Amino acid sequence: MKMVIAVVQDKDSNRLSNALITAGFRSTKLATTGGFLKAGNTTFLIGIEDDRVSEVLQVIKANCKVRDQLVTPVSPMGGTTDSYIPFPVEVQVGGATVFVLPVERFEHF
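and the corresponding structure tokens:
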């Protein structure tokens, strides 16, 4: 048994949720916030048998896309901000960060 933890961008969460249901995977969705961009994410917790891990990873990969986004950096802490002019920076967002962990025991009541 494995626990798949997938952190995805909010824009991909509904599509991924529907795809997981269609493929027969049960999951729990949690609203989370990223640390770098401080933007909304969704974290999926998926308990899955060992032999189906590759299937669930394919569903995640097919439904979570990397995209470019313009972000204005936060002003620096300390010092003077008079000379600081924030210019938008293009960064890649989206996709999925996935952790696959072994599960010692699973109970469903």
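(Above: one complete record from the training split.) The chain is about 20% helix and 40% strand.
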